[in-house]
Task: inverse folding
């Protein structure tokens, strides 16, 4: 049975979204087509290509919707800005996390902008595809894709005639995926999104320009940015960690097992000698099968004084995450956090990256993110922007429904396992390079 009240709320919220974005379309016709397109992406359409979206909208042919993507005069970047305002207003929290990642779109032929045979993490192999670099925003209220860029390999940017045929702007020269991620971080910092963390995998973490830009903009930004997190290619860079510490920003950075910890040697050797009771069970967030629980060991290394050399303000940590079912699988992290930060907080941030994978899956399955039939650069940017706007609407509606359900239910209290542990593991002061972690003691 259809819940008429729920349908009424859905329609009202969607109309509100159309009202706040409609001014980006100066003429009535593209404004109406945008509404048709979004409603089709959200509707029960089997495959959300031009013909089926047109049929759902009551059009005889897909010409009007194709014109919206390829010929009408409107700016997808301006619509993206509205999207970020919308997400900030409805999902924003002071400790929001920005997550960077890319996804592949399998394509045939050689004329679609940016297409070539290249590795796609989505497919898990080298395929003829396009690669989109995305940013997702995650809080306890929900998560949504908030930005996008099309990766253009050198086989495209070195051939300006080919770029011109695909309507790729002249200013789009070659940029690595981390360069594109850097651009999105800059936009997010300038946006109303209240970001406190940034996370990405190693493809982005190895890009020092992204890391430096992110920190320098964070210092000047009025946004409450407090943390940076990333994969091991970020974390192994000593200058990055030092710079973050000097600016007072916290971080949780994955590092390779060969990472050297000052005075203690390799981080994997450090944790291989940890006493059994140093490993505690913590969840780094809920996954598809429930809480993602691992064994975590956390060692406080050194305190860091403030700029005047007075009272310590921050603490350096070394962390390790060990699989319960496969204890040989261990990931390592270095962290820098304000005094009083709990292990649970660090673990939660380290485990947030999965949210963008969920967002990709939802946007593809429910909003046609990967079901476009455009070849030009402009058409790709417009379709993807409309698809992530539709996804953001679903994320907001889900968050509202969850909040309503929580308000009607008395939540069960759950004691924190960290609080019950009675302290955290520390290393002895000024140990020798070969010191064993067994010299650590509980505070």
Result:
């Amino acid at each position: 049975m259809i819940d008429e009240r729920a349908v009424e709320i859905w329609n009202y919220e969607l109309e509100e979204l159309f009202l706040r974005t409609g001014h980006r379309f100066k003429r009535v016709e593209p404004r109406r087509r945008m509404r048709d397109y979004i409603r089709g992406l959200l509707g029960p359409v089997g495959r959300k290509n031009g013909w089926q979206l047109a049929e759902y909208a009551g059009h005889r042919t897909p010409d009007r919707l194709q014109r919206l993507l390829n010929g009408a005069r409107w700016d997808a970047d301006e619509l993206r800005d509205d999207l970020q305002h919308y997400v900030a207003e409805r999902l924003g929290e002071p400790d929001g996390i920005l997550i960077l990642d890319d996804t592949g779109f399998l394509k045939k032929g050689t004329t679609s902008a940016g297409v070539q045979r290249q590795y796609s993490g989505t497919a898990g192999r080298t395929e003829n595809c396009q690669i989109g670099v995305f940013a997702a925003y995650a809080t306890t209220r929900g998560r949504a894709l908030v930005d996008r860029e099309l990766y253009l390999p050198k086989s495209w940017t070195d051939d300006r005639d080919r770029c011109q045929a695909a309507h790729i702007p002249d200013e789009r020269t070659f940029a690595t995926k981390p360069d594109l991620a850097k651009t999105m971080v800059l936009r997010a910092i300038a946006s109303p999104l209240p970001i406190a963390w940034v996370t990405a995998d190693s493809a982005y973490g190895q890009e020092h320009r992204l890391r430096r830009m992110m920190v320098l903009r964070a210092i000047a930004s009025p946004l409450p940015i407090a943390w940076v997190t990333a994969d091991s290619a970020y974390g192994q860079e000593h200058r990055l960690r030092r710079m973050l510490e000097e600016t007072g920003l916290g971080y949780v950075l994955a590092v390779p097992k060969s990472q050297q910890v000052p005075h203690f040697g390799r981080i994997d050797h450090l944790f291989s000698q940890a006493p059994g009771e140093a490993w505690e069970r913590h969840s780094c967030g809920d996954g598809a099968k429930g809480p993602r629980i691992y064994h975590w060991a956390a060692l406080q290394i050194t305190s860091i004084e403030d700029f005047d050399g007075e009272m310590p303000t921050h603490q350096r940590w070394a962390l390790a995450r060990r699989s319960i079912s496969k204890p040989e699988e261990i990931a390592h992290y270095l962290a820098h956090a304000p005094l009083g930060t709990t292990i649970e907080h660090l673990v939660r941030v380290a485990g947030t990256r999965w949210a963008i994978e969920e967002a990709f899956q939802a946007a593809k399955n429910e909003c046609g993110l990967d079901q476009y039939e455009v070849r030009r650069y402009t058409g790709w940017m417009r379709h993807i922007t409309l698809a992530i706007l539709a996804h953001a609407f679903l994320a907001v509606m889900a968050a509202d429904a969850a909040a309503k359900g929580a308000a009607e239910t008395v939540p069960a209290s759950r004691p924190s396992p960290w609080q019950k542990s009675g302290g955290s593991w520390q290393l002895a002061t000024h140990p020798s390079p070969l010191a064993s972690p067994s010299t650590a003691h509980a505070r």
In short: The two ends are 58 Å apart (CA to CA). Residues 252 and 346 are 7 Å apart (CA to CA). Residues 377-407 form the longest helix (31 residues). The mean pLDDT is 81.
